[in-house]
Amino acid sequence: MIVNRIAFSFLVITTLLFSCMHKQDSNSEMVERLQQQDKFETNSSNIYGSVAVLAHLDSLIASAPNGAGLLQFNIDKANTLLQLGRERQAVRILDSLNKTFIPDYLNRQTVVKTLALAYLRLGERTNCIINHSAESCLFPIRGSGVHMDKSGSEQAIALYEKILKENPDDYESRWLLNIAYMTIGSYPGRVPLAYLLKMDDKPADTSVKPFKDVAMNLGLAIRKLGGGTIIDDFNNDNYPDIITSSSSLKEHMHYFRNNRNGTFTDLAGPSGLGRFMGGLNIIQTDYNNDGLKDIFVLRGAWKGKFGKEPNSLLRNNGNGTFTDVTVQSGLLSLHPTQTATWADFNNDGWLDVFIGNESEDGDVNPSELYINNKNGTFTEMAAQAGCDIKLFVKGVSSGDYDNDGRTDLFISTMNGRKVLLKNITEKNGPVRFKDVTQQANLGNKGPGTFATWFWDYDNDGWPDILVCGYGNRFPIAEAAGAEALNRYKGDNGKVILYHNQHDGTFKDVSKEAGLDKISFAMGANFGDINNDGFLDFYLGTGNPMFTSLVPNKLYENEGAHRFVDITSPARVGSLQKGHGISFADMDNDGNEDILINQGGAFPGDAYQNALFINPGQGNNHWVNILLQGSVSNRAAIGARLKITFTENGKARNVFRDVNSGGSFGSNPLMQHVGLGSSTKIEKLEITWPVTGIIQRFTNIAAGENIKIQEGNSKIVTYKLSKFNFSYLPMSNMPMN
Asked: What is the pLDDT of residue 2?
């Protein structure tokens, strides 16, 4: 008996110790999971496992007889070397093949085109990556963006001209030829007239002032693969910090703390975030209502059966560190994804999360809905709620499109289907959704779509929908060339804008709004760059193909009815792959800046992030509004703002919802609101999500940072120091 009691006591103590150690070491548990997954993905069947693919090709080449098969293996090897960033080795292989007799025309053209691309990539690495500058790869290329070492581009030019001589209708090569001439400072003067693409660099609005990339100045220009971004205040000092991630399980997260003096410090190590690898997208939340912003990391997108990577919920401990609580919270799942949205779907004051997963033939990964149990855990109930979507989901957004006080879902997919789910949850009942896609006039199948969001672009009080067309299998660089030639008439890669008709239906107004143009956007988000009260947006063109050199694009909202591409005058059109995007006023001058996480999907396509600082686009005014829920969720996600002011003698309303913006990149939850020329808000109305109660405030001066707590009639104001990011302190030199 005594022995049994001792054994039982030992078991209890051991269990408690193990439980305690398990809790303390949950970070290590996730790190181990990610390491094991990385080993699994190092496989020659994984198109993103370039190291394993190269080894496999070497074995095939060693045993293959001479002939077409051996030729193809060598071409594949050269492409794989490009994926690994080993351009010189790729050039040697392709140059050798090009000097041999290749009787088949298509194979010969493939060799020459791949060799031209290899030289173009070599020029990029030598100049834009190794000798990176603030103007590197900015389209149209000029100034310090022109290559100092022109040899790579010059070799590419000679080959592209040879290709076009034989096939003048090869628009992809024609586009890349013009880009190559730009890189050596010889566009348009030296481009043969037969191949010249006239790219109009005249701004539609000559008042647009150019942004400036200051990421190098601040130590933010880390070089890595494409990933996510969050700008928000993670230590509650009122200054925005920056979190970034990478899609690669070999590259860790970064946490750039705002030092409140114009500098940033990367706390990846001390915070614990540097232990976590991967994450094509990241979103902030406050899942436990403690007033500290947590991080949700989404992993595995595009990788199919190799993408069964765990997402991570990283709890903010309030002391500068983060703890992985994925397992404890019940959020552990193994599905390829990059998109989710946090919202209070049952209006109980706690944030839930909907995750859009990627399903393909033979690999079904239903989307998930995790309902917050209010105790740090979640229960998955997508099937019961009617939202277990089984499509290749690439973007999700939550918002109250019908103004009934319940948060709805819009889902964007690569299958060409768009899904609108109306929230029909009864008070105190389980969450329920109804598919109203057809009734809402959103049901016509079309090209694949990607990033998406609800927003009120015309300030009529009803959320509209923007969704970015993509079309992964379309030759993107050819489309870019075709756009310059005004030849492209298809719908692939175009932005779609749906106007809310106030009756449960939407109307496609893309053409009227000037958005029926090619963008092929992956990353996307919105903000108000000129403080006129109308939301603008920025697109990152992140296709993994190396021939895809489509500029990232900035569109200005011209007073609710039309958008204008101002990429060129704004100098934000990087040709590098664009993914996570965030709008925020980083230097506290009252103008929203743009952070973009750049880099492709392969190791050789790593690139530096950019932070484009807005110099100010006129003399319009603004106000920053930070909300805190009491009955509603602490982060106030889902709260609705109506801002009323008078401009030029006319009353105006601006509407905003508290959220992190688009579905690929996260803005601060604090809302930056442009007021046009008005110097004050006459009336601010806040509709809180749980109760539907409207709080009203009057006569708020422009240029203020204000905090409002749910149920409290007092406005708290706070000051922020302005910074000048134009200098380059030695301590903040960029990292690789």
From this structure: 41
